[in-house]
Design brief:
This protein has 186 residues and is α/β, with parallel strands linked by helices. Helices cover 39% and strands 21% of the residues. The strands form 3 sheets. The protein has a 3-stranded parallel sheet, with helices on both faces. The chain has a 3-stranded parallel sheet with strand order 4-5-6, covered by helices on one side.
Amino acid sequence: GKTTFTMGLLRALRNRGLSVQPYKCGPDYIDTKWHTLAAGRESVNLDIWMGGKKHVRNVFDKYSREAEICVAEGAMGMFDGYDKAYGSSAEIAGVIGAKTILVVNAKSAAYSVAPTIYGFCHFSKKYGTEIAGVVFNQVASENHFTFLKEACHDAGIECFGYIRKEKDIELPSRHLGLTIDERFRI
């Protein structure tokens, strides 16, 4: 869901005439190709484990200079790093000073996402980042979305919207991540 959302956001910003710089947290070589197709600019990796915090900040600053907006896609879960949260998307967001949009898989869940979202919002402060809002993925219906919006409200976080469960927009995947498939062109 993160890559589908990120690609859609990159393309929507590009279609509005904005110069958008894409990034990917961690040493990912497939998602960056999807980002490049969607944004029309080369996607760059931000990886604390391989380069350190100072390097990540320098890379972010270098590539963001000529962009009007920057979008960085996280890797795995927000707090999943190579040693607890060290090197995680949350830590990288803190290093580059970015707010986070939390993409929540809502498949087989409704109001129960409230405590999960609440926990993410409060735990993220430990890493110097803030969750600006939530987008739900795998939403079954408008009625389902109503419960999810209520969960956001009660968790004290803005709901930015949702992505319906749609087989046609699912990206092919394999055990180590997404694949590049000739059938999918942006």
